[in-house]
Specification:
The structure holds two protein chains of two kinds. By secondary structure, chain A is mainly α. Helices cover 65% and strands 0% of the residues of chain A. Chain A folds into three domains: 88 residues, NADH-ubiquinone/plastoquinone oxidoreductase chain 6, subunit NuoJ (Four Helix Bundle (Hemerythrin (Met), subunit A)); 34 residues; 39 residues. The chains are: A mainly alpha, B mainly alpha. Chains A and B meet through α2, α3 and α5 of A and α4, α5, α6 and α12 of B.
């Protein structure tokens, strides 16, 4: 039990410290690295409470894909040179009120959730002990009771993806694209023709 | 007290796994170079020790005694962390690989997801190395490799779903035991081929070694590294290749199961079958390196997103439909 408590406090300490470091570190790329550290410690906490499937999905989706794209964007935009001065300068504080508003809303949401648990304890202490692994139990719920919500969230993601493509897509002129089908379906007659060239007149190409 | 006993016994087991693994990585580098040489009708490294077996040892000694150069304009902490990350991630994934039914360090429920997660983290070593070097070629190499590894991970994930549909469990031991009757390479052969090619791309092996294409990018993300730090990248890369071979043999070639379960074959210890399958896959990797020319970058991306991903998705639908129609879905 002592070892369990030790690891819990170890991972939660790292999670909290790295979450703070995300906001205060001067270099933006370092912020993303701290974010990754935060994700990893959170997924370790998930594994410690026995939700191994959620922990692994957290690693795969957030660390393996989302944070890579974050890092990609941060490096490509070269924001590494911009110094993070939110907490230093007194003049430029346009972000501060909005940030405070969002954090207050999130704080009250957390209070409502935890307060609900305290008010009705049977909501939180539903520990189902069975032989089924938590992957199977998530699957059993997700694809039966909540199938419509699940599909709806998939549709939301699809719409977001199409929106991103539409916003960033621009047709560029004068670009040569390779098409395997065109290449492979090209035959001799399409490319080569036999011409009787008259003397001193030559042959006209490119018409 | 009991806790310390567990700690010591686990440490012993980890050392017992890691030391042979590191030796195997060194030997596999030698094997890679030998196979490469034989395809091109050369001799390959054959001077140090019998058949040149100690070549990797000599190389490692050379790297250890070389000076580590850290560029002045680099981001020093990230620069040093990058090879450590690559090496660590390449080694910790071996914790869940089952060498036989009872010879596995951690038999966890979500073994295949763990493997997938760790291999998707592998890209960080490369990005960190490329960015921290603060130089153009490493940065270009890192960006290329990030895009490449993220793309091919998607198709590997879908291929894993194909196998999981037939197994009904994420546990690696269960995946191997489900292939008792028939190895998955036979019903899912196209998936095996795509897995093999995606594994080549995922580990940055030729013909997909664009992050370190020497004609375009000097040595890619490794350009600024020297001495032991370079060697750690190199060892991590080969440990990852071995891991991909192990994953391929667990998912498709029946892990530690013997091909024919009759008298002379079942005397061979299961772990030996597993190692032999890994070696066969690795020799295929080495042959591909020697035979195939390097891909162009846009072709690589096209292959990943427009050919492999739709094809493996269609196979998921086909496999699921087939299993459902013939009532073969695994019962939980």
């Amino acid at each position: 039990m002592i070892a369990h408590a030790f690891f819990f406090y170890f991972f939660s300490f790292i999670a909290v410290v790295s979450a703070i470091m995300v906001t205060v570190s001067k270099n933006t790329v370092h912020s993303v690295f701290f974010l990754i550290l935060d994700f990893i410690s959170i997924s370790s906490l998930f594994i410690m409470i026995g939700a191994e499937f959620l922990g692994m999905i957290m690693l795969i989706v957030y660390v393996g894909a989302v944070a890579v794209l974050f890092l990609f964007v941060v490096m490509m935009l070269n924001v590494a040179k911009q110094k993070n001065t939110w907490f230093k300068s007194s003049t430029n504080s346009a972000h501060l009120p909005i940030g405070l508003l969002v954090s207050i809303i999130i704080f009250f949401e957390v209070i409502i959730v935890i307060g609900g648990w305290k008010y009705k304890p049977e909501l939180s202490n539903k520990i189902v002990v069975s032989d089924v692994t938590n992957t199977h139990s998530i699957g059993n719920v997700l694809y039966t009771d909540y199938i419509h919500l699940f599909q709806l969230s998939g549709m939301v993601l699809l719409v977001a993806m199409i929106g991103a493509i539409v916003l960033t897509f621009r047709k560029r002129e004068g670009l040569k694209r390779q098409s395997y089908f065109k290449q492979l379906s090209r035959e001799r007659n399409d490319g080569v023709s036999l011409v009787n060239v008259k003397s001193h007149q030559g042959v006209k190409i490119d018409d | 007290m009991e806790y310390f006993y567990t700690l010591i016994s686990q440490t012993y087991k980890i050392l017992f796994l890691l030391l042979p693994l590191l030796t195997a990585v060194a030997m596999i580098v030698w094997l890679d170079r030998r196979v490469w040489a034989f395809v091109q009708k050369r001799k390959g490294p054959n001077v140090v020790g019998p058949f040149g077996l100690f070549q990797s040892l000599a190389d490692a000694l050379k790297y250890i005694f070389k000076e580590i150069i850290i560029p002045a304009s680099s981001n020093k902490i990230v620069f040093i962390l990058a090879p450590i990350t690559t090496m660590t991630l390449a080694l910790i994934s071996w914790a869940v690989i089952p060498f036989s039914e009872d010879f596995v360090l951690a038999n966890i429920n979500v073994g295949i997801l763990y493997l997938f997660a760790i291999s998707s983290l592998g890209v960080y070593g490369i990005i960190m190395g490329g960015w921290a070097s603060n130089s153009k070629y490493p940065f270009l190499g890192a960006i290329r490799s990030a895009a490449q590894m993220v793309s091919y991970e998607v198709s590997i994930g879908v291929i894993i779903i194909n196998v999981l549909l037939c197994v009904g469990s994420l546990n690696l031991t269960d995946i191997v035991l489900a292939q008792d009757k028939v190895w998955f390479v036979i019903p899912l052969f196209p998936m095996f081929v795509i897995f093999f090619i995606s594994a080549l791309a995922e580990t940055n092996r030729p013909p997909f070694d664009l992050p370190e294409a020497e004609a375009e990018l000097v040595a890619g993300y490794q350009t600024e590294y020297s001495g032991m730090m370079y060697a750690m990248f190199w060892l991590g890369e080969y440990a990852n290749i071995l891991l991909m071979c192990a994953m391929g043999s667990i998912l498709f070639l029946g892990g530690w199961l013997s091909p024919i379960n009759i008298y002379p074959f079942d005397l061979v210890p299961p772990a030996l079958w597993f190692i032999m399958k890994i070696l066969v896959l690795f020799i295929l990797f080495a042959l591909v390196k020697a035979i195939v020319p390097r891909y162009r970058y846009d072709q690589l991306m096209k292959l990943g997103w427009k050919i492999f991903l739709p094809f493996s998705l269609i196979w998921v639908v086909l496999t699921a439909g087939f299993l459902l129609y013939f009532d073969l879905l695994p019962k939980v």
